[in-house]
Amino acid sequence: DISELFAWEALDSRGTPTVACEVVLAGGGRGTAIVPSGASTGTHEAVELRDGGERYGGRGVSAAVANVVGPLADAVRGRDATGQADIDAAIRWADGTADLSALGANAALAISIANVKAAADAAGEPLYSYVAEAGAEPLLPLPMVNIISGGAHAGRAIDVQDFLVVPVGASSFTEAIDVAWRVRRGTAAVAEERGYNVALVADEGGLAAPLPSNRSALELLAAGIERAGLQLGTDAAIAIDVAATEFYNAEKGRYELASEGRELTSDELVEELRSWCADFPIVSIEDVLAEDDWDNWTTGTSTLAKVQLLGDDLFVTNSARLNRGIETGAANAVLVKPNQVGTLSDACEVVRAAQSARYATVLSARSGETEDSWLADLAVGWRTGQIKVGSTMRSERTAKWNRLLEIEARLGARAGYAGAAALSPNPG
Ligand code: PGA
Ligand code: ZN
Predict the structure, then answer these.
(1) What pLDDT is stored for residue 85 in this prediction?
(2) Residue span of the signal peptide, if any (predicted)?
(3) Which amino acids are annotated as binding site for Mg(2+), given as ranges?
(4) Does ligand 1 have an atom closer than 6 angstroms to the CB of 151?
């Protein structure tokens, strides 16, 4: 049973306060968790509690920390830590709002994750195996690795937020990370030759070159893959996170590609993406349209049907929004960020709902991350098939890659690897 909760303010990778928490169990077993935080957040996400006022320019989380050790601790103390659904329901009940805005989704997630880690510790099991369904084998995910950044993560030099490599030819997670590393090095070499300062990196460790256009980032990444001696499309393919909500002007109903001085309708933006797909081996497009542009998401999904269409701000790890997407044919894959919804059980439910609808699942870090690596274990245990963590450098990113490398090494021959088959639309 949960006997004690302890919480404190920690810093995330942007130097912004975040909630850290420890859950201690009466019979032995303890778990700590630090929660991440986004920058290009969706409107429909669960709500992070921020203090306002003077401390940390208003970004402090002392009230959320007080909620962990106050009302939330009162709600979960004495409960059986192995009943994760019960713990998460108690957290929701104590908060009383659907978006966890009363006590804070940051406070809620810290307890939820610390609890599952404490329960795994008490059971003497690694977290990935503790969170797995009975009889489910661990599965290492296909990584999507950030190489070039734009948008809200890189001072908006270009509009599209992430240009990532997907090591589709690799036959293990360990090999996939080597491929991603080579692409990073190759892309940096080409960028440097073109006169860019490659020491400048964005929030997730991607290159933050002030490129002239969105398409030029694709050209640079493709050149980087070739410079690495890899076969474009077969060894290494491309994914992008358009994060279109960030440059959608709701009043005009237009998408503003500020870096190119262009304003596009939904149809025109989808056409633009279609032309990129014709010229580059793009296998996944995230947030191709804005978070509430539902009808155009449906038509866009059929226009771009050959690639994975991933909903991040569209679904915000919310079952009701995912179900709406499944019913209307919007997107064919879901990005899962546990802090968008606030509890482990809710995030797990979204993964299961997506899997039964044959939507691919990509577990994702946030742009503001920490040294905590729980995300890696969830990907393996829940068999999400894909993971997105940022670049291959910066410790808050490598914490997750390193945990996955460790799990694959420890499992040895027993390690299953999802590989490119995890991408939607799945031919199998
Ligand atoms: P965020 O970015 O964490 O700033 O929301 C990540 C993403 O958009 O996928
Ligand atoms: Zn995104």
Answers:
(1) 98
(2) none
(3) 241, 286, 312
(4) no
Q: Is the ipTM of this complex over 0.95?
A: yes
What is the distance in angstroms between the CA of the first residue and the CA of the last residue of the chain?
A: 44
57-90 pLDDT tens trace:
999 999 999 999 999 999 999 999 999 999 999 9
Beta carbons of 75 and 94 less than 8 angstroms apart: yes
Torsion over CA: 280, 283, 287, 293 (sign): positive
pLDDT of residue 273: 98
With a 6 A CB cut-off, is 403 part of the ligand 1 pocket?
A: no
Q: What is the largest CA-CA distance in the chain?
A: 62
Q: How far is the CA of 243 from the centre of ligand 1 (A)?
A: 8
Site to probe by mutation for ligand 1, drawn from 37, 40, 144, 396 as the one with most ligand atoms within 8 Å of Cβ, is 40
List, for the chain, all residue ranges whose pLDDT scores fall below the cut of 70. Answer: 427-428
- Residue 263 has a CB neighbour count (10 Å cut-off) of 16
Alpha carbon separation from 82 to 79, 116, 180, 266 (Å, rounded): 9, 8, 37, 46
Ligand 1 lined by 232 (C-beta under 6 Å)? no
Q: Which residues surround ligand 2, an ion (CB under 5 A)?
A: 241, 286, 312
> Within 13 A of 310's CA, how many CA atoms are on the CB side?
27
The whole-number pLDDT of residue 253 equals: 97
Cβ–ligand 1 distance for 362 under 6 Å, the answer no
Q: Which residues contact 147 (CB under 8 A, 6 or more apart)?
A: 163, 164, 165, 180, 183, 184, 187, 206, 207, 221, 224, 391
pLDDT of residue 76: 98
